[in-house]
Design brief:
about 300 residues; alpha/beta; 12 helices; 9 strands; globular
Length: about 300
Amino acid sequence: MTEKLTVSVLGTGIMGAAMARNLLRAGHAVRAWNRTRAKAEPLAADGAHIAGTPAEAVESADVVLTMLYDGPATLETMRRAAPALRGGTVWAQSTTAGIEGVAELAGFAREHDLLFYDAPVLGTRQPAEAGQLTVLAAGPAEGRDRVTPVFDAVGARTVWTGEDGATAGATRLKLVANSWVLAATTAAGEALALAEALDVAPDGFFDLIAGGPLDMGYLRAKAGMILEGRLTPAQFAVTTAAKDARLIVRAGEQHGVRLDVAAASAERFERADARGHGDEDMAAAYYASFDDDPTT
């Protein structure tokens, strides 16, 4: 029988709230905190304790799970939680923080005697709500008996990449995967925008590639969201996609690789954000193809 844990969830946005609910469904006690408390409050109806501060949230926690916007936000939050952290507590860091960001977070963990797991996830709103995320994890063997039930509650699969979270092995794999996801999203939007400009019916394009090696379910899913106006609620927001694209570009630069597609994607996401689409699904980068935003 799986041990029931007390899990502190710091960050209850699209992903964090879904992960918290699945932890509750698995029978774990959840202490939740979010910078904007109103985003955490709905979890109270599911049985979560809503904390007013990060320090309150981590009191008596067996595992701390962070799912915040980026590395700096995570580090600042954990510094606020520090007075209540107990040595030996497991920390599963699921924010896409980048290679440098993970190194800084691992340093904080060492300073406070925490068992640190670099544990970003693959998946968006729908798989998060269904507990079907893929967890990419790296961290010490000694704490895996405590962190594994958390990963099992939020994900369908855990891929271990090593025993040292500080090397960001899991985050490195996540950045590679995200580079493909963001490139495919950008390409889908551009293909639809070009079809519109050339007066080509989207169905003609889909019929042309149907069943062949160029066809992909992801293309059809994102294209459907654009064509049917289903960009809210976001599965993965434009603003977050822009942040991740910049982390990918930065990782490439640090390792001697020029990532032109990722850089262009970042610019498109940022342009879509500037036009008011930041909280919409990342497929809304489609609108960055036009000089005049057709939604305004």
